[in-house]
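Q: What would this chain look like folded?
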Amino acid sequence: MQFGIYAPIPMVTVGSPEVAQAAAEALLPLPAGRRDAQYDHGEEMILAAEKAGFELCLFAERHLGNDLSAWVMASAIGAQCQTMRALVAVHPGLWDPALIARLTVSLDRICRGRVALNVVNGSRDDEFRMFGGTVLEGEQRYKRTEEFITVLRGLWSSEKFSFAGEHYKIADGQLLLKAATPTPPEIYSVSKGDRGRDFIAEYCDWWFVDQPKDPATIEDYLRGSEASIADMERRCQRTGRKMRYGLTPFLAVGDTREAALDEAVSSIFKFDPGADRRMIEKRMVPATRAGCVGPAKDVMAQLRRFEDIGAELVLCRLVSSTDNMRRIGEEIIAPMRQTQPIPAHA
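A: My prediction, written as structure tokens:
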């Protein structure tokens, strides 16, 4: 099993005073000589996660938000990592694929061949309008993303590449810079509907599995995820492609399930004492039904069940602190490595 984290930015992080500070200061000049607090926190957490044994960091992107740009964060922090892969989010329709092809191989060479793309097919319409994109619906949105990936892979693998699609056209395109390894960067994505799953099966390397919405029990979560993976396997048989699978559970370790959840909620609450603790608990409980909250032995047993249904990666939702990273590394990741070494990623 591989372990990943989300880069701690306002869009995805709760319970971090540094991220809260960065959000509060976003529209203000910084004091002379001081960096944005979310960068400092992100650097600390990501390097701590790498030391703890995490292998991947997703740099999510929200253009209309106070998050630092995913590409800037990935470049500044990913280059410092020795083993962790940088998974950078990109939205077709806001970026030109030839430009992203070049940015990706540039970062890949800086990061020693450890870069992948998280292609986000949908986004907020206001972001597209604000940043010069074109709002598309349904089939055309998928078609644009398929063409986007086709251009990426064509430029990565060919000396010269031409393409004439509905949304992108390129004549004799070439990159005078190639990826750091013979194998091009992998493509990750997530999509839920029938058309979206067909897109995943035909164009992507990794799928963040469409998991049950608000599952009533841990078994419901597992069986729903298993059914989604089985469905994708059938689609991949038709395309002749191989898919790899990731899940996104909330992960917390404690003496009991209740103690682990209480500690996680308390960690968030103490940095925002004005928040409604009951609402924090209510929002977190569905995320804990993945079964990765509680004693380390129980969490590891659930992760083994994930492996049994075909999952190879858990992109963990967790409390963003160095102590928590270290604890997960010592009590979950290291013991699982000892019993089943992770294979080199493709």
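The first helix runs from residue 17 to 25.
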